[in-house]
Amino acid sequence: MIDTNNNRIKKLKAKKILMACIGQCVHVAGPYNFMNIATQLGFECLFLGPATPIQVIINKIQIYKPDILGLSYRLTPFTVIPILKNFINKYEKSKYKSQQLFFAGTPEVVKIAQDFGIFHEYFIGGESKHKIISILRKDIATSKESVRNPGELISRIKWKKPYPIIRAHFGLPSMKETLEGIKKIANAEVLDVVSIAPDQNTQANYFHPEDQVEYLSGAGGVPIRTKEDFLNLHKSRLTGNFPLLRIYAGTRDFIELANLYRETINNAWAAIPIFWFNQMDKRGPLTLKESIKQHLEAIKWHGQNNIPVEINDPHHWSLRDAPDAIAVADMYLCGIIAKKLGVKHFIAQNMFNTPPSSSFDMDLAKILAKNELLQTLKDKEFSVIKQVRTGLASFPLDLDKAKGQLAAASMIQLAIRPDIVHVVSYSEAQHAALPDDVIQSCKIVDQVINRVYSSKINLIDDKIEKRKEELIKQAKWIINLIPHLAKDKKELKNPYINPNVLNRLVKYGIFDAPHLKNNKFAKGKIKTKIINGACYSWDDLRQKKYDEIQRIKDIIIDLPDLDSSDLIISNEKSVFEVFDK
Q1: How far apart are CA 574 and CA 559, in angstroms?
Q2: Which of 92, 163, 524, 528 suits 411 as a labelling partner, its CA being 20 to 30 A distant?
Q3: How does DSSP classify residue 70?
Q4: Which residues of 170-199 are buried (b: 16+ CB within 10 A; e: fewer)?
Q5: Which of 103, 136, 169 is the last residue of a domain?
Q6: What's the distance, CA 424 to chain centroid?
Q7: Would 540 be classed as within a structural domain?
Q8: End-to-end CA distance of the chain, in Å?
Q9: Confidence class of residue 564 from pLDDT cuts 50, 70 and 90?
Q10: Contact yes or no for 190/435 (Cβ under 8 A)
Q11: Quick check: 277 and 312 in contact, CB under 8 A?
Q12: Using 50, 70 and 90 to split pLDDT, how confident is the model at 580?
């Protein structure tokens, strides 16, 4: 399917579109919007402007030889009749004729144009980007037929390029309301992936009904209790633009759940942490070490079954005010883990605005550092899919201000040209997103995407580049340290995917966060501070910024069971020397 889509896209790049407002019509906003989307998809577009005489259009058709001709008229309906008669009379006599004719106008004008029976597609304004892309990709035979979209993630991403696909989180405490909501969202054609939000009972106890707490049913999302519930979720999305479905991995029984997801909702990709969703953050029943072990097994299973994997781990450190260097190092580590475990498509979720007091520029520097390190892992067998999202904690309770935050944060995120935009509904700080909240949030972000992708704005300056390089250096040092945490040859053979070694990263405090204070699985001794918009480790005794590499060296010196002389090294050794073992 992917190859077919790629071939179709390549063919479309050579196609030409000629557009004009006819008669006395001067309403050019619609044609410009259409032309912007078509241009992004690789079409060569020529717009003749407002109030273009019919003879000029006919002459340009013969010269330009467009594959698609688009006419627009948004004035008094009956006045279009003689204009269209004039056009048809001259067009039928012309030597060159376009493969397709499009017409745009008000609903009343379109009804009149339809009576002439010569146009292939009609637009009344306000059509979703999805519909326009679908028509240009020739994925529908007529405007009355259901849209046929790529039914899996990678094909859908390529189908929509260069625009990112849109994902949003949705799940209400009622199964009935959730099913109705998915249908409403699908029919709005504003997103490509609905992320099902299951309640905690589903995540932790789906296969253990005896452990489910009834009064907590619906806490955090939709209560999914049976296979039929999953199948109904799947059926609810089979309308509108047929969005994909995805769901979290759960907090135990990972492979059993993964099989269930594959059989029912055709889970678009898995979201599996490394260090989280266990007893450490009180979101799951497993110990830290056991959860790491089972998470690694689940990632390997998805790799073997060619299911894309998102390791939703790095931003959890930032959510707990860890220094930026730890979040960057963890993202790099997650990429290494995914590649070693056979994942072919690694989804890097970049949560911006964490911590929420981070400045836009330093936040972007952190994400750029993550992305640059991941790009070094790419090859023919391993791709990196960039996903961005706004940090939930950054949303104000005031819904008008929250809309502003969503738009502003989205603009910054687009600097990395993501493959997926995870739209966090602006209402989330106040209440769980309802269907209309999701739809409105997606429309806000879509408008930002339209404006940014039609511009050539560059947000990256020398200050951002300097901070990015600083974080890359620190993250590499931390990752290259990992093999030295192995205590025997067995652990050293594959330290990056050894649960014992990874557990020590947290146990020793190399990966640490202020919010983990008094946590039996972590040190919780680190202190951090936002300085000039970036999150650094902080030396409380000396009241100054704590260099991350020095902080970790100081930890290593105090470890009685490790040879600090071996560990305190310049760490110039490349991770790939270990990676290839």
Answers
A1: 24
A2: 528
A3: E
A4: bbbeebeebbebbbbbbebbbbbbbbbbbb
A5: 136
A6: 10
A7: yes
A8: 35
A9: low
A10: no
A11: no
A12: very low
Contacts of 243 (CB under 8 A, 6+ apart): 182, 185, 186, 191, 192, 193, 194, 237
* Residue at 79 is within a domain: yes
- Mean pLDDT over residues 222-245, rounded? 97
Q: What rounded mean pLDDT belongs to the chain?
A: 92
The secondary element (H helix, E strand) that includes residue 160 is: helix 153-160
140 pLDDT higher than 50: no
Residue 63 lies in a domain: yes
Q: Which two tokens stand for residue 325?
A: 């260097």
Q: Which of 338, 318, 339 is CA-nearest to residue 328?
A: 318
Three-state helix/strand/coil letters over 286-343: CCHHHHHHHHHHHHHHHHHCCCCEECCCHHHHHHCCCCHHHHHHHHHHHHHHHHHCCC
Confidence of residue 218 (pLDDT cuts 50, 70, 90): confident
CA angle 372, 164, 7 (to 5 degrees): 100
449, with CB counted inside 10 A (0-12, 13-18, 19+), is buried
Hey, is 410 helix, strand or coil? helix
Q: Which structure tokens are listed for 399?
A: 């819904």
| Residue 534 covered by a domain | yes
Question: Other CB atoms closer than 10 Å to residue 102's CB: what's the count?
Answer: 20
Q: How far apart are CA 254 and CA 260, in angstroms?
A: 10
**Cα dihedral 204/207/211/216 (nearest 10):** 60
Residue 202 is which amino acid? T
Q: What average pLDDT score do residues 297-307 get?
A: 98
Residue 152, CB-side half-sphere exposure with 13 Å CA sphere: 12
Please give the Cα distance from 518 to 71 (Å, whole number). 68
Indicate the number of domains in the chain: 2
Longest dimension (CA), the chain: 92
CB of 79 closer than 8 Å to CB of 29:
no
Q: How far is the CA of 79 from the CAs of 25, 108, 120, 325, 411, in angstroms?
A: 11, 11, 21, 65, 42
What are 387-445's pLDDT values in tens digits?
999 999 999 999 999 999 999 999 999 999 999 999 999 999 999 999 999 999 999 99
Structure tokens at 24: 């006395």
The CATH code of the domain that includes 16 is 3.40.50.280
Provide the 10 A C-beta neighbour count for residue 141: 8
pLDDT number for residue 84? 97
Domain that holds residue 93: 2-136
Point out the domain boundary residue: 117, 136, 155.
136
Cis geometry, peptide bond prior to residue 107 (ω within 30 degrees of 0): no
CB-based burial of residue 317 (10 Å sphere; 0-12 exposed, 13-18 middle, 19+ buried)?
buried
Instruction: Compute the C-alpha angle 447/449/451, nearest 5°.
Output: 70
The answer to whether the beta carbons of residues 26 and 179 sit under 8 Å apart is no
Residue 11: band (very low, low, confident or very high) from pLDDT cuts 50, 70, 90: very low
Both tokens of residue 317?
């450190």
The reply to whether omega before 164 is within 30° of 0 (cis) is no
